[in-house]
Structures are given as structure tokens and as C-alpha cells.
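As described in the Methods, two query proteins were run sequentially through the folding procedure within a single session, without resetting any intermediate state between them. The first query and its resulting C-alpha cells are shown here.
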Amino acid sequence: MSTILLVDDHAVVRAGIKQILLKSGMADVIGEAGDAAEAISKFRAEDWQLVLLDIRLPSRSGVDLLGQFKAEKPSVPVLILSTYPESQYAVRLIEQGAAGYLSKDADESEIIKAISLATRGRRYISPVVAELLASNLDKKASAPASVEDASHEVLSNREYQIFLELASGRGPTEIADSLQLSSKTVTTHRARILRKMGFTTNAELIRYADRLGLLL
């Protein structure tokens, strides 16, 4: 059995995952955190054998938390459990140290399998993620020919998150409310994203993301 920290801002989601863990007998200590500050505090306070981490959190992205967790305790596996499809985040987060990437609508058996592998020091790579990783390697091997399809890779984690929101057709106010940021912050990030990627309009971001299959 394991000590597992669940990080998700929805209590009902935490309750569902907790029920799966208890029913399967996979954990004897289960911690819960609903935001980044609480997650950091609990992460530092205990010796966890696994962290189950959502990407979308109030005030600070789970993507940023992954980097902090791996920097502070690199031996603790962090398994991503998110509503975002694999095509948007899986490769980026696995390359940054995640032990695996799971969709929240995954079957219970798949969640148990992923947790079991991660707590034993192995990575969980689904068939979909395996294909994405292979495709990413192919793109890197063919550089610089495919450099125009790698513009998003220069973005920071926060910029990448906002890029996906913009590419999904959401406006600055909607994004700000969703990510609990100010509209001014989102607008500043948007300007940076466009500059880094060599674009001038949101329409170009949308076409780019659609071409690479990054949209929902």
C-alpha cells in the first residue's frame, strides 16, 4: 500500500479517486489538496509515494507544480490526471518528469494500473501517449524541416496553457476567469505568445493548433 496525495480543485473528483484507491487497497494514507498552496504545503509535510495531480488549479497551473515537485523531491512520482486530452499536454509533461498522463474519463482499471506502475518507479504510457511520443521523436529527427510546426515548444508552461485557451477561441476575460488571472496578465501573455511564435492574430494561432491536432 502507498501514501498518495490527490491534488484537484474539485472535491467530487477527489472523492471519486479516493474511493477507487480505498476499494482497490492501493493506499493506506490519502492526502487531499484543492489548490497549489495547499498542495505545496502537504507535499513538503509528508513523505508521499505518489502525487496525483490535475493541471487546472486555482491561481497556479499544475504544470508549474510538477516542475516544483520534481525539483524538491525528484524521487516522488507525479501522475497527471486531467480533463485535457493527451494531445495537448502529455508529451510536454512526460518530458518534464511526469510518471504518466491519464484522462479523468479513463476506466477504473486503467487508473489502478497507472498508479501501480508509478508507485513501483515505472512510467505509465498509454497507447495514445506512446504514439504521441513516437510522433514527437519523428518531428525532432526531421528538424529543421519541421521547425514551423514546433513554434509552441518555445513557450513557457503558462504561455502554453494560455496559447491552448486562445486557440480554442476563448477571449482574454474568459481565460482570466478560468485560470484565475487578471485580464491584463492574459493580454500580456498573449502578446508574448504571438511574438515568440511569429504570429500576429488569434486566427493564426487557431490554424496552427488545428493543423497539429492540439485542439479539443
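Immediately afterward, the second query was submitted; its sequence and C-alpha cells are:
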Amino acid sequence: MNDNSEKKTFLKKHKKTFMFLALVFWLATAVLLFIREANAFSEQVKPDYNQQSLFAEYDVFKEGFDDYKVSEEELEFVASLPDNVEIKVFFGTWCHDSKREVPRLLKSFQSKSDIIKLYSLDHQKSHESGLEKTYKVKYTPTIVVLVDGQEVGRIVEHPEATIAEDISVFVGNANSAARGE
């Protein structure tokens, strides 16, 4: 038997093994690239607005902010929030519920405005980053409350009571669960 036919016989005999190894290599590479991209994406997504830029561009949000009267209970709750809370707000500048609720949130959380991240969605409720898919946003506004990076609750379109009270329940439940209560 010559060298060429031995190679062909070897390749035929191990064809499935080579195909399997190539598939495993391809899948492992795809997974590693996906993880790398996901990590880079999560670090790059920046909020679209802060309070000042939102008010400068849309008077209706500033007017809603000025008109909203915050209760003492809301202010006390916000002041007592731990440092590990973050609030992601997915809203539409075109949305009547957003025009009502976002200013109320911003007014209630004036003392901790740095924990609020504002993401403006288009009419299809999409964001250029795709972040709305990560948080499964279907309606505006959607206010996602995170403790230590984990979602503990959300307000969709309007709160059950007030935004601060609803968030207080979410954070309280998360803290109770963390303590094993």
C-alpha cells in the first residue's frame, strides 16, 4: 500500500472524530466570543439622559417634576436606601405614562439621582443597545429596580401606590430574603 492510500484510509476511518472536534472547537470559540462581547456590551451601555439633559430637551418632563409634591414618607425612604440599589428606567419621550411617572421618580429620588439610569426607547420600544431585550421591556415606562445587580422588582406603566412606596417594598423584600427571613 502506498502512502497516499494510507492517508485516505486514515481520514475515512476518523472522519467523524475530526468533524466532531471541529464542531466542538467552533462552538467553544463562539461561546467565548459571545461572553467577551456580552461583557464589553454591559460595560459600554450608557444612559441616554440625566435629569438635566432630559429637562433641557423636553419641557413636559420639567413641568411634571415641578408640579409633583413629594411626601415626607417618600423622602425618608429614599434617604434610607442602601448604596447597592440601582434603578433603570426605560421610557418614551412620546409616552403619556412616561411623561407622568418619570418626573415623579426624579423628584422623589432627587437626593439619590445618581442611582437612576434613563434609557429612551423609540416607538417600537427599542433601544439602540438592545438593552430593552435584556430586561424584557414591553411597556413604557418600565422601572427596573436592582439590588447588587439583581432585579428585585419592576414598575410597569404606573406604580401600585407611589413609585417610592413600590420600590420600598421591592428593596425591603430583597433585604428580608438576603437575611433569610
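Confidence is low (pLDDT under 50) at residues 39-44. We note this only descriptively and draw no conclusion about the first query from it.
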